Amino acid sequence: MRSLTVRQLAFGWLHFALALPSIYLLLGMPLVLREQGWSGTQIGLLQLAGLPAVLKLLMAFPVERCRPAGGGYRAWAGLLGVLLCLALLGLAYDLPLTQPLRFVAWVLLISLLATWADVPVNALAIRCLPAGERLRAGSIRSAALFLAAVVGGGLLLVLHQRAGGTAPFVLMALLLAVGGIILCVLETPGQGEGGPTGGASTHDLPLGSTGIGGFFLQPSAAIWVALLMLLFPFVGAGWVYLKPLLLDLGMPAEQVAWWVGVGGGTAGALASLAGQRLAQGLGIGRALPLYAGLGALALACLGLVSHMAAGQTLWLVGAGLLACAMGALSGLVFGLMMHFARPGYRALDYGLQASLFTLSRLAMPILAGVLLDGLGYAGMFMVLALGMVAVGALTLPTAGRLESALSRVLPPKPAA
Question: Which spans are transmembrane here (predicted)?
Fold first, then answer.
């Protein structure tokens, strides 16, 4: 048990260190860019710098089939991590905030390397952790990402304000170097890291057939793909524009960083851990509609207070609800993604799911940016809320079927 806990925490740190650059650039920097005069549409288009995440499936093929320096997933993660450190240091000493095309080029490079490194790290985690630990791993990963949001969307913005634009990138490179040391000393099971026969478990979902096509032959795979692409984008888009909204309302940049970046990220991390335990008690069939409803409520609240031009307290209530919805949904989604990664195809199946997830997540902020420029904040949040209501309605007839398909691998519900 101690060994499993150490592995969970080690992978949690790796997720944190890899996610931090992208979170800072795509979720934290919009606050700085708004100060530089970037429009809502420009900030929305910046999210296209996360486009490499859509290509995780393509990145997974060499990770699954090639073994640099005789290694496997670990070697790939180390190589890509070194390149990511160098890119972060390069941007630290350039930082062209007033040159959008040049800035986006740097962000694209960093996003590509961080995204590619994420594939072998997650494949290694799926291989190292038994099926009974995967929902827990999903909640820890989600909490790590929200910790990255606390640092990248809050503390690094404060560091930017006080120490200049170079300091956050140097710090991120150092944190990534610590992750590289953890990766080198991490003990992993002795079975092969890849290949169709490596590390199969009787608790995993059946293979069905080899290759990518076998993923869609798993029970309820079609339902899972639909929910994977629809559960998160609406709340995620609302979060992207929350900091620029508060800045436009006259809240000081550092105060936005503390309240939304640090406070909201902490609330999301706690909701990730609590939401996972609640889902085990309620069951997937009840938890998914509940979490989708929470997301719709949070977006509607933000739309309403935007229309009313309400006070600061109500804005923070809406932001807290949105953070909790994001945490609960993401923790559950990440855990289920691990269950749908077949033995021997961990990198490929993870890459496929991550590509589908990212495709929808990146498309929504662009639409939301156009809505913001055309309808204002109130209209944008209300449209996003209606979209989340539709997703919640979709979960009602489908989440129970998904739970039934996963009943062989999900931990049993706690006794009443």
Answer: 12-33, 45-63, 75-93, 105-126, 138-159, 165-186, 221-241, 256-275, 287-309, 315-338, 350-371, 377-396
For residue 195, what is the DSSP state?
S
Residue 210 has pLDDT above 50, yes or no: yes
Eight-class DSSP state of 193: S
Domain range annotation of the chain = 2-186+207-405
Are the C-beta atoms of residues 379 and 370 closer than 8 Å to each other?
no
* Residues 6+ away with beta carbon under 8 Å from 35: 247, 253
Q: What is the mean pLDDT of residues 54-64?
A: 84
Q: Is the dihedral of CA 375, 381, 382, 387 positive or negative?
A: positive
Structural contact between residues 265 and 154, judged by C-beta atoms closer than 8 angstroms: yes
Residue holding tokens 């929910």?
Answer: 227
Least confident stretch, 170-179, 187-196, 298-307, 308-317: 187-196
Question: For the packed helices 221-230 and 346-405, what is the interaxial angle rounded to 10 degrees?
Answer: 100
**Lookup: tokens for 190:** 């002795």
Q: What is the crossing angle of helices 134-150 and 312-339, to 10°?
A: 140
Find out whether 267 and 327 touch, Cβ atoms under 8 Å: yes
Where do we find the tokens 């923070």?
316
- In angstroms, rounded to a whole number, what is the distance separating the alpha carbons of residues 259 and 278? 26
Q: Report whether CATH 1.20.1560.10 matches the domain 2-186+207-405.
A: no
| Predicted TM-score (pTM) above 0.70 | yes
Longest dimension (CA), the chain: 62
Task: Write b or e for each residue in 275-296: b if 16 or more Cβ atoms lie within 10 A of its Cβ, otherwise e.
Answer: bbebbbeebbbbbbbbbbbbbb
Q: What is the pLDDT of residue 130?
A: 75
Q: 329 with 271: CB under 8 angstroms?
A: no
